[in-house]
């Protein structure tokens, strides 16, 4: 599964207000070349949207974002999520996700958190909030003592800097909300999201 996220290379971070919009949004992303999405639990629409997307297109890799409580891991797993992302590192969430067979990407911002992730058996984490933490240079610095750890930078990543992040061997994919503006999602402007996805895939293209 994680090799699929790595192959796609770009993970949209989605905030949905209407769960019924989920399948259309996923179809727009896929048409633009991005076959995955992290549906955040920041709105009550998140979990039902995951269920609708997973039912509509089993080939689309849907995961849950902003997972803050261990019980939410079970809720999103039951809804069909295949990976779990958190802004920070909570061992209970990591352990619950692994027990449910889900890939889990907790957020780390410091060397201490990378060490905790290693102790939990992980070799991939999210690096959040990437730009304010120092971006690519910060990831490269962390890679010194942690050569086996690979990162998903998120927070301030855009089409303009995605290729630079992806050129870092320690980066396995990038994530962010820039190709799914909440206003376009709310308006159902799927053509706009498809175009942003196409532009993103083009801008992020680096030999990998
Ligand atoms: O919701 C989560 O689980 C998060 O950890 C945060 C998101 O990954 C970032 O908020 C995306 O950042 P932007 O692309 O700058 O909007």
Automatic annotation (TrEMBL):
<comment type="pathway">
    <text>Carbohydrate acid metabolism; 2-dehydro-3-deoxy-D-gluconate degradation; D-glyceraldehyde 3-phosphate and pyruvate from 2-dehydro-3-deoxy-D-gluconate: step 2/2.</text>
</comment>
<dbReference type="InterPro" id="IPR000887">
    <property type="entry name" value="Aldlse_KDPG_KHG"/>
</dbReference>
<keyword id="KW-0704">Schiff base</keyword>
<keyword id="KW-0119">Carbohydrate metabolism</keyword>
<dbReference type="GO" id="GO:0008675">
    <property type="term" value="F:2-dehydro-3-deoxy-phosphogluconate aldolase activity"/>
</dbReference>
<dbReference type="InterPro" id="IPR013785">
    <property type="entry name" value="Aldolase_TIM"/>
</dbReference>
<protein>
    <recommendedName>
        <fullName>2-dehydro-3-deoxy-phosphogluconate aldolase</fullName>
        <ecNumber>4.1.2.14</ecNumber>
    </recommendedName>
</protein>
<dbReference type="Pfam" id="PF01081">
    <property type="entry name" value="Aldolase"/>
</dbReference>
<keyword id="KW-0456">Lyase</keyword>
<dbReference type="InterPro" id="IPR031337">
    <property type="entry name" value="KDPG/KHG_AS_1"/>
</dbReference>
<comment type="similarity">
    <text>Belongs to the KHG/KDPG aldolase family.</text>
</comment>
<comment type="subunit">
    <text>Homotrimer.</text>
</comment>
<dbReference type="InterPro" id="IPR031338">
    <property type="entry name" value="KDPG/KHG_AS_2"/>
</dbReference>
């Amino acid at each position: 599964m994680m090799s699929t996220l790595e192959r796609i290379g770009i993970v949209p971070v989605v905030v949905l207000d209407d769960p019924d919009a989920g399948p259309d949004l996923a179809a727009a992303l896929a048409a633009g070349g991005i076959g995955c999405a992290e549906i955040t639990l920041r709105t009550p629409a998140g979990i039902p949207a995951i269920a609708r997307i997973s039912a509509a297109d089993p080939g689309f890799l849907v995961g849950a974002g902003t997972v803050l409580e261990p019980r939410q891991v079970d809720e999103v797993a039951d809804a069909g999520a295949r990976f779990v992302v958190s802004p920070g590192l909570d061992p209970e969430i990591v352990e619950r996700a692994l027990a449910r067979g889900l890939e889990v990407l907790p957020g780390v911002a410091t060397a201490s958190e990378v060490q905790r992730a290693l102790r939990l058996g992980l070799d991939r984490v999210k690096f959040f909030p990437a730009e304010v933490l120092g971006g690519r240079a910060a990831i490269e610095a962390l890679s010194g003592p942690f050569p086996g750890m690979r990162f998903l930078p998120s927070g301030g990543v855009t089409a303009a800097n995605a290729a630079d992040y992806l050129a870092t061997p320690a980066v396995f994919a990038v994530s962010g909300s820039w190709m799914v503006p909440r206003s376009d999602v709310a308006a159902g402007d799927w053509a706009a999201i498809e175009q942003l996805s196409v532009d993103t895939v083009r801008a992020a293209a680096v030999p990998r």
